[in-house]
Amino acid sequence: MHLDELERLYNEQAYTEAITKLEIYLQDHPGEVRGWQLLGLSQLENAKATDNNDLVTAMYEAAYEAFSQVLTLDPNHQQARVHRAYMGANVMTDKGDEAIRDCDILIAIGDEELTTKALLYRFQVWVLKNETEKALADMRRNLQVYESLYADDLPQLNVARFQCYTRIGDVYYHTDNRPAALEYYKQAFECTVYNNRLLSTTWFALDMADYDFAAAMLQVMVSSGENSREDMLRLLKHVQQLLADGVRHAALAREFCKGTTEFWQQFYGDDHDEGTLEQISAGKRYIAQYPEEAYFYHYTANAFFNIGSYQEALPWYEKSMAIHPYPFSMVRWYYTSYKVNGQFPEKWPEITHPVPYDWYAAGVIFSEIIQLEKDNLVKQLALPLKRFLYKQAFDIYHAYWYENKGTSYAGHPHHFAMCCNNYGIALYEGGIYVEAAHVHTVGYNMSPFWEQLESRADAYHSMGKLAEAIDDRQTILENFTDALPLTYYVSIHERMIDDLCSLERHAEALDLYEKILSEYNSWIARDMEDLEEYDRQTITYNIDRIKTGRAFIRTNSADDLYERILALETHLVEKPDDSDAYFNLMYLYFDNAQYEHCIGAINNRISIGGISQLPVISQMKIYYFRGKAALKLGRYKAALADMQRTLDIMATGDTNDNSPNYRFGVYAFMAEAWLGEKEYDECISYAMQCVNIYAANNWAWDTEASSIRYTMALAFEGKGDTASCKKLIDLIVLNDPGYQPAAEKKNQLRGGGIFSFFRKKK
Q: Partner of 470 at 20 to 30 A CA spacing, among 16, 183, 654, 702?
């Protein structure tokens, strides 16, 4: 078997098969370096995945021998030497001396990355040999190498520093030099504040009575939520006891109070009223002890805020803000001011705060508070503050990860990614779509999760980048289905089908349509029964939207339009009150010249109700299409009434709803309807409005320009103003010679026949 095939087995993690075939191969090719290296790697990976201790030992021995064989054949083979040094330092304690020799050779090569690995492995051997000074010297040297290796990558450098300082601290700790250990743990913490040693190090700091250090770590643990609730509660209870026993330390008391907000019931009980009184009492007690610490005023204010006593909360927030305006205090003060005074303050304080998570958390808190407001105007007024809070966090995170600035308080990649998602959503809510997509991209690159892609897809969709939105949602379906709530799984299909139709990628849309409906019938309908009522209704709504969306999925079938109509009519047998189905049938019936059916579908949609809750553009379409269908049937008065209703609705909308294109369409049909009613002046008036729209927007002459002038010409003819009629017909023929109605009318106006010339001469 060729070595490429054996390497493929290794890459596919078929280690046992690879080992068996490599051993056979190497019997015939004992000098093949690559084969021995592959055998060593396969044995090493197999050992890591094996639980049987006896087998593990044998596998490690075999791997070590394979790497040794590589080095016998090629003493300069660096990767074999690295793997052998690793094994001698970590899993084969009897190979320590060989590991040191391997590390010496690797260090002598002069490659910085190799040197850091070799120094680490040699450090581990020195520790096992109780050669403390040699171990410390190697780790300090490693620090120097990392400073050079990661000079332009602060996040990576800080992770490396953390590992070095922690290892040095551990050496001192295990040699009973606890003060030195504590100092190195402090340095490690400053390099990576979010780390897996926080809990044990906090207990150590408390034991050493270093309350500043303990408080700093407790702050991070309370906010990160990465320790078990049992561990955190035990730690907070211990801090509570220290404070009760007379420890006076403002920062430790502050972080304890923050912790109690996460464990409110455990500290204040199940009776909400009594617990609130106890929190207020605790806050005032700490204020008396530490009057210069702003957080305790905030803590007291929160107790009033949480029961809706905004009038009582506001003075406490104002005192907290006056001493030190924390971001989380600022947002509650801002909202409380609105509840007390009936309006938001004109501005929020100009403050600096170095911890990005606090800014991000303040944004989350404010978003949750505002979400409960029923007044949409209040929600709109709150948007700038939401964006400000998230931007403050984003800028600090971004500077750390992309500009090598700041501290490791910005070093949590998932926090950064979550901030990006929330900031992007806040930008999206404000219509700032391009920046929202950029922020979501930054967040997804930091920590890929499906919510980030879904939010970016929304931004892309609103930017008109439908293909990009489809790609993002396709990525979600391909890579994140296991983590995707069922409601989103269905809604993503609905949105993708809609965008595929808009891009006229109908074959893909039809495949997705058939796939999701098949899945709905085979398992989604069953699985959704275990969900909450709201989620079940959401899924049902989206499935109905998918079914009614069949109206816009065109196929190459000769009966395409009929098939789409039949799909919606069949759906209406099951769901006779589905307003979207009637709305979409409106289009199909009109396209199929079934004008009576079109009017019937619209009347059914109107009878269901809720028209005023629809977007303005949808309200306009309902009456616009009914008017067009009436016009096709010669019901001119009905057509005029519906077109006027369309104009009235249009007037309530924004500039998009009142676009020149929309107004032209309505005026043109009104002109045609007035022509049918033989009200020629009204017809000419509306036709002139269409002509003026063309002129105002500098639109090029096209078929619609010809059509509206032709309608006007017929109105002049109806009035008996043949001269004006002829002028318009000549103008149309001059600008659009292919417009057949005008050409025929021109011929008709001449009188036609061989003797027409002579008649004109009389």
A: 654
CA distance 367 to 542: 26
CA atoms within 13 A on the CB side of 363: 28
Query: 146 in helix, strand or coil?
Result: helix
Assigned token pair, 749: 């106006």
Instruction: Pick left, alpha or beta for residue 712 (phi over 0 → left; psi -120 to 50 → alpha; otherwise beta).
Output: alpha
- pLDDT tens digits for range 616-654: 999 999 999 999 999 999 999 999 999 999 999 999 999
pLDDT at 363 over 50: yes
pLDDT at 751: 65
Instruction: Please tell me the distance from the alpha carbon of residue 283 to that of residue 301, in angstroms, as a whole number.
Output: 9
Other C-beta atoms within 10 Å of 633: how many? Answer: 14
489-518 pLDDT per residue, tens: 999 999 999 999 999 999 999 999 999 999
Q: Are 219 and 255 in contact (CB under 8 A)?
A: yes
The candidate with the shortest Cα–Cα distance to 299, out of 311, 272, 285, is: 285
Please give the Cα distance from 395 to 391 (Å, whole number): 6
Determine contact, residues 688/728, Cβ cutoff 8 Å. no
Name which of 469, 466, 394, 385 is nearest 424 in CA terms.
394
Query: How far is the C-alpha of 23 from the C-alpha of 39, rounded, in Å?
Result: 8
User: Taking the CB of residue 153, how many other CB atoms lie within 10 A of it?
Assistant: 13
DSSP, collapsed to helix, strand or coil, labels residue 262 as helix
387 in Cβ contact with 420 (< 8 Å):
no
In this prediction the pTM is 0.84
Q: Which pLDDT band, with edges at 50, 70 and 90, does 55 fall under?
A: confident
Residue 199 in contact with residue 187, Cβ under 8 Å? Answer: no
Q: Which helix (H) or strand (E) holds 631?
A: helix 616-632
C-alpha 618/C-alpha 224 separation (Å) is 46
pLDDT value of residue 223: 86
| E-assigned strand segments in 221-287 | none
Contact 49, 41 (CB under 8 A): no
Report residue 735 as tokens: 């600008």
Find, among 341, 334, 338, 390, the residue nearest to 361 by Cα: 390
Count of helix runs (H) and strand runs (E) in the chain: 40, 0
